[in-house]
Amino acid sequence: MAESPITTHDPKNEEQGPVSPSPQQKKEMEQNYAQMKRKMSMQEIGMKIKHKIMVLSGKGGVGKSTVSTGLALSLAQQGHKVGILDIDITGPNVPKMMGLDGHKLHVEQGRIHPAKGHLGVKVISMAFLLDDPDTPVVWRGPIKLGAIQQFIGDVEWGNLDYLIIDFPPGTSDEPLTVSQSLPNIDGMVIVTTPQAVALLDSRKSITFAESLKVPVLGVVENMSGYTINGVTAANSSVEIAGPGGKTIKSTSDENGNFSVTLDIFKKGGGKSTAEDFGVPFLGALPFDPGFVRGGDDGVHKIVSDPEGASSIAFSAIVKAVQAQISDKPASSLEII
Amino acid sequence: MAEQMPTLVRIERRESDFHLTYDNEEEFSVTYHDLRHACPCANCSPLRNEDETSLKLREQVESFKLHKPSVNPVGHYALNFIWQNGCSNGIFRFERIWALANRRDPDNGKPYVHGAW
Questions:
Q1: Which of A11, A17, A140, B7 meets the CB 3.0–4.6 Å disulfide criterion with B23?
Q2: CA-CA distance, A197 to A143, in Å (whole number)?
Q3: Residue range A216-256, pLDDT digits in tens
Q4: How far is CA A58 from CA A159, A204, A224, in A?
Q5: What is the CATH classification number for the domain harbouring B30?
Q6: pLDDT in tens, A135-152
């Protein structure tokens, strides 16, 4: 840390010159100075990053990190400069999905330099700071808050077109801290799965976004349907026992190819939630076991299969997000 | 949401109300007091759950001196109104403004329930 430029001055003792602060006062002043520098740095970072998008969900396990990394990679595929800030302090898993497992961060002159993952996407995550991946991070709120502010203010992101911020599930400290620290956040993407429990929590996230005064860019429905492809006799009917014992029928084409989509966690809940709350529905992502394998292997499905159904679905979602944050005025509304 | 809502194309700030014009040429007025009483933020919304607190909220917004607010678009789906006093937190979706314009309950009779925080 640079030496604090702060000294105290008492006009009553002008003849005696400046009074030296006590060690305690000096420590407090240095802390305040560091905090002020960090705030200025956060403002500067806010200006260097054109678009900042928060990715949240009310419930865990709905695929937030998958959506965050997918959005980042899909944007990078378009040629944008992209970064991901994995703010999930206690369960960071973005590095593994981005092929950066075990990577250590480079720190120079007190500034943290992000790691570079697939397609040049810059990544910052708590996982980089853990010596042992099996060691849990057990921090109370204020310590967590300090770490998040450090992750925002002390990182040398450079100029970015998009910063995707991946949060832990729920509506607690982390999004509150980020929304108060980072200026001009474009909005939140709410990730949900179609089942009622996840939808209930997503509704809380939407209300939460409103209380933070952060716009909801829209809702993404993940794990929307699992498509089975197969081959049988040409032009023949196929019956599959679907979820709940429901029979799903299909007919093969002239080459014998057929496909059936199973709505494992129901379907359409994300869209109806978005409609209920009057926020945009950004699209649905198929249930794709390739994301699990890709996540485990460190090669994201968008990288390994850029023309696949999931990559196409992500591309459509990215376009929907971009439509929301475009610099064009909201419709042709005239305000006088 | 079965209802097809027209697009708000013009919003005029008058002395004590907004004059709204939609693309189907329908025109409405919404008073500043009605709009502020219908604020959807997490502070104001719970106050409308009970008649007594709702009345207090109404008295509070009516006690503010009337002035023209700043109007800021939020994404492509909502507006935010900045007032010189009181609450400016609410993000008003166009559906909510449409409901107010048509003198309907913008909360659809549903009580507000706080999120998990």
A1: B7
A2: 31
A3: 888 888 877 677 778 888 888 888 777 667 777 888 888 88
A4: 31, 7, 17
A5: 3.30.2020
A6: 655 566 666 677 777 777
Half-sphere exposure of A200 (CA within 13 A, CB side): 5
Beta bridge partners of A187: A53
Residue of A nearest to B12 (CA): A336
* Inter-chain residue contact A171 with B95, CB threshold 8 Å: no
Proportion of chain A in helix, strand, coil states, percent, rounded to 5:
40, 25, 35
Domain A48-225+264-325 falls in which CATH fold? Rossmann fold (3.40.50)
Q: Where does the pLDDT of residue B115 fall: very low under 50, low under 70, confident under 90, or very high at 90 and above?
A: very low
Kindly indicate the confidence band of residue A292, based on its pLDDT and cuts at 50, 70 and 90: low
Return the SS3 of A181.
helix
Whether B74 maps to a domain, the answer reads yes
Classify residue B46: in a domain, yes or no. Answer: yes
Is B1 among the domain residues? Answer: no
Binary contact (B41, A211; C-beta < 8 A)? yes
Provide the whole-model pTM.
Answer: 0.65
Chain A neighbors of B42, CB-CB under 8 A:
207, 210-211
CA angle A318, A289, A309 (to 5 degrees): 40
pLDDT at position B36, please? 93
Q: What is the ipTM of this complex?
A: 0.82
Q: Is B77–A330 a contact, with Cβ atoms under 8 angstroms apart?
A: yes
Residues 102-141 of A with CB under 8 A from B: none
- Structural domains of chain B, count: 1
Cβ contact B115–A208 (<8 Å):
yes
Tell me whether residue B39 is in a domain. Answer: yes
Structural domain for B40, as ranges: 8-101
Q: Which sequence spans correspond to the domains of chain A?
A: 48-225+264-325, 226-262
Interface test with A, best of B76, B82, B93 (most A CBs within 10 A): B76
Of B1, B76, B114, which is closest to A330 when you measure between CB atoms? B76
Mean pLDDT lowest for which of A59-73, A129-143, A189-203? A129-143
